[in-house]
């Protein structure tokens, strides 16, 4: 039996330092969305070059922030009763972090260029999220909670489009209740009430 060893010595310190930088960047971006690298460096007591040593480039740092955001979003929607509720919980969580929403919207738009460093991340993210939501809709169909007269992949892609489109609208008008609108879409995915 092979056991996984914990990192030791300088490597372990490097991993901890990278996590510290990432946590700080997440905090800074959550509030602002356009944080200068110098602010992150100042908060962790490094130069800009020192911060980039742990990530390779500013783009890699931004992607690491978005990956961490996705991990936190997944935790926020644990125990949901279906994809629509999970997305609504994620949206509620993200409404407390306008800077991360701004970063996500800006980076996802830039990543539509196939040569952009974030292109692969977003392509993989949408493929994986779509597959996860499709499984959720199919499970909901088996329990009678989701309509079966529409294609599950189409509904999954529409749910993602609703969520992403609402983020852009919310950045322009913060009074918009994104979660309530996602919940409306979720109700549209329920079987028609014949009663």
Automatic annotation (TrEMBL):
PROSITE patterns cross-referenced by the UniProt entry: HTH_TETR_2
Domain HTH tetR-type residue range list: 15-73
InterPro entries assigned: BetI_C, Homeodomain-like_sf, HTH-type_TetR-like_transc_reg, HTH_TetR, Tet_transcr_reg_TetR-rel_C_sf
Keywords: DNA-binding, Repressor, Transcription, Transcription regulation
A Pfam family annotated for this UniProt entry: TetR_N
Positions of the DNA-binding region: 36-55
Keyword DNA-binding found: yes
SUPFAM superfamilies: Homeodomain-like, Tetracyclin repressor-like, C-terminal domain
Family annotation (PANTHER family): HTH-TYPE TRANSCRIPTIONAL REGULATOR RUTR (PTHR30055), HTH-TYPE TRANSCRIPTIONAL REPRESSOR RV1474C (PTHR30055:SF229)
Name recorded for this polypeptide: TetR/AcrR family transcriptional regulator
Organism name: Actinomadura sediminis
């Amino acid at each position: 039996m092979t056991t996984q060893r914990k990192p030791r010595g300088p490597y372990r310190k490097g991993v901890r330092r990278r996590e510290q930088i990432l946590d700080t960047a997440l905090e800074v971006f959550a509030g602002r969305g356009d944080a200068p690298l110098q602010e992150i460096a100042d908060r962790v007591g490094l130069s800009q070059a020192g911060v980039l040593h742990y990530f390779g480039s500013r783009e890699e740092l931004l992607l690491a922030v978005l990956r961490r955001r996705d991990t936190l979003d997944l935790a926020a929607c644990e125990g949901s009763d279906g994809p629509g509720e999970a997305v609504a919980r994620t949206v509620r969580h993200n409404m407390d972090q306008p800077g991360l929403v701004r970063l996500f919207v800006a980076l996802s738009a830039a990543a539509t260029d196939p040569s952009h460093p974030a292109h692969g991340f977003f392509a993989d993210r949408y493929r994986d999220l779509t597959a996860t939501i499709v499984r959720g809709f199919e499970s909901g169909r088996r329990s009678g909670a989701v309509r079966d007269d529409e294609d599950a992949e189409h509904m999954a892609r529409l749910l993602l489009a609703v969520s992403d489109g609402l983020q852009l609208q919310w950045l322009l008008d913060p009074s918009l209740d994104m979660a309530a609108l996602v919940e409306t879409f979720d109700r549209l995915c329920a079987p028609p009430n014949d009663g």
